Amino acid sequence: MKRLSPLMQMTLALVTITVVLVLMADLLFGVLRDPRTQEQEFRTRYSEALAVQLAASLGQQDPAAVQKLFDQIRLRTPGLESVALLRVNGGVWARSGRDNTGREVLSADAAERVVVPLKRSGESWAQLELVFAPRAPHGLARWLDETWLILLVFVLIFGGMMFSLYLRRALNYLDPKSVIPERVQYAFDAMSEGVAVVDARGQVLLANQAFRAMEGAGAPVILGKPLASRSWLTEALPSDPLQIPWMRAMAKRGNESGFPLHSRDAQGEARELIVSCASIADAKRVVHGCLVTFSDVTPLVQANEKLKAVVNDLSVAKAEIERKNEELQSLATRDPLTGCLNRRALFDRGPALLAQVRANGAALACVMVDIDYFKRVNDSWGHGVGDRVIREVAQRLLAEMRLQDWVCRYGGEEFCVVLEGEAAIRAREVAERLRQRVESDAGRRVREVKDLRITISLGVASLCDADSDLSAVIDRADRALYVAKRQGRNRVVEAGATTLPREENVHA
After folding, report:
1. pTM (two decimals)
2. Does 26 have pLDDT greater than 50?
3. Which of 271, 278, 320, 341 has its CA 20 to 30 A from that of 482?
4. Which of 97, 41, 34, 43 is nearest to 70 (CA)?
5. CA dihedral defined by 468, 471, 473, 479, rounded to 10 degrees?
6. Which of 340, 360, 358, 339 is closest to 350 using CA atoms?
7. CB-CB contact of 306 with 300 (8 Å)
8. Which residues are 442's β-sheet partners?
């Protein structure tokens, strides 16, 4: 609900006071007479005067003449519904108008009856009865006929208009703009920041053009109203009035600066402001008001947001590039069929590993692995089954290795496993565990061929002082592998002095 303006509030207050004073005067001194009481008094006096005039003449006339006289009286008297001469014993001498049962003209409860006794020789011999119509019917028409109500309505309407005109002129005379020199107003208007001067209650005394522009086009003048009551400020300010920046500055007789304000303009667009407040005090340090400045930093905030968005986009792009590089690195170093290291990655990383092992005095061993009778698999069930066999063997090898161990697809159906540290010392045991795992598990994983038996042959060689590089260790392990194949396959042979040179027909 929209609040009434201060002018209207003061006008209503003055009109209310005036009405209360009129009612109190009537209560104490009776200055407002009730029209019904006045009319009742008039009718009573009229009835008594008529009775005095007719008392002497009515006794000598017959009932017909009296009836005619009463008809003339009733017609000439406005509001008189009936007139009757009643005997003391209850009989009717003459009547004009309705009878005493009230069956004519109006109901009995709506009329007003006046009875005046007629006396002769000091004794009552008859009664003159006059029945008048009521002043006004019940309802709105009766209320509109009340004098006091008309007076109150007059005071409300015309008094309100006069008070409003007078207060408007008085407020214009007391307008702060009339006592502020124009050069001061011009100086404030020249400032690019929004500036408002408030009194000790937070009501606006002065606002420059930049601040009025923040109100929006067509916004009403805010002078004399609380600064915190503006709609675009209310939503952004603290709910506690004591925590409002300018009220806090006046409370501590100091300054408040750098208060961020997130509001919206007349079009609903977000607006970022920085509020600074400086209390205004006299020589006795009594605070009389506060100078409030509003710096619109919306363009700066928007630029920062755009910069953050760009930085975020760059971060996302960097992460995507790193992910792509990892994918490229994986493609360059991993075998696409098995996920193991490829031969190039093995020899690229070999020198660094060899140098580290020798520097730490650790052990190193290579295990060469070859799938037995792999050519028969391809010839019997095709290359698709052959690829599936290679993948299953690779999965078994990877499952048995530690994170620091290397499993490399050396070529075709051959794999090279590089062991370091304790595992290298127990290289033959590791190789035997690999052989058993493949023999027991790999074949049944290839569901395309029922009861397929897959075995591997392994050659093991450990690093010795004579090995100049990793290739030398791999070569000795490869020779041991061919010995295992010559000896019947599905076995582990460790390289030694009796290791025979390789023969190329062992793959058959």
Report:
1. 0.43
2. yes
3. 341
4. 97
5. -130
6. 358
7. no
8. none
Share of the chain above pLDDT 70, in %: 82
For 384, the token pair is 């698709």
Quickly count: other Cβ atoms within 10 Å of residue 130's Cβ. Answer: 27
- Quick check: helix, strand or coil at residue 149? helix
The partner residues of 494 in beta bridges, in order of sequence, read 460
CA distance 72 to 48: 18
CB atoms within 10 A of CB 209: 15
When pLDDT is cut at 50, 70 and 90, the band that residue 219 belongs to is low
The sheet that has 123-132: what strands, in order across it?
92-96, 80-87, 123-132, 112-120
Q: Which residues contact 49 (CB under 8 A, 6 or more apart)?
A: none
Angle at 370 between CA 369 and CA 373, to 5 degrees: 155
Look at the chain and count its residues: 508
pLDDT digits (tens, 9 = 90+) for 139-150: 555 555 566 677
Q: Given the structure tokens 């001498």, which residue do they identify?
A: 93
End-to-end, the C-alpha distance of the chain in Å comes to: 98
Beta sheet of 270-281, edge-to-edge order: 204-207, 194-199, 287-296, 270-281, 255-264
Position 379, amino acid: D
Q: What would the two tokens of residue 174 be?
A: 């007391």
- Three-class SS state of 108: helix
- Number of Cβ atoms within 10 Å of the Cβ of 295: 17
The most confident of 42-46, 202-206, 458-462, by mean pLDDT: 458-462
The pLDDT tens digits for 418-449 are: 999 888 899 999 999 999 999 999 988 898 88
Q: What gap in Å lies between CA 283 and CA 316, rounded to an integer?
A: 60
Handedness of CA 54, 56, 59, 65 (dihedral sign): negative
Q: Is the dihedral of CA 86, 91, 93, 96 positive or negative?
A: positive
Beta strands in 12-74 (DSSP E): none
**Helix H or strand E encompassing 337:** none
Contact 481, 458 (CB under 8 A): yes
Helix (H, G, I), strand (E, B) or coil at 266: coil
Residue 464 is given by DSSP the state -
Compute the distance between CA of residue 208 and CA of residue 221 in angstroms, rounded to an integer: 11
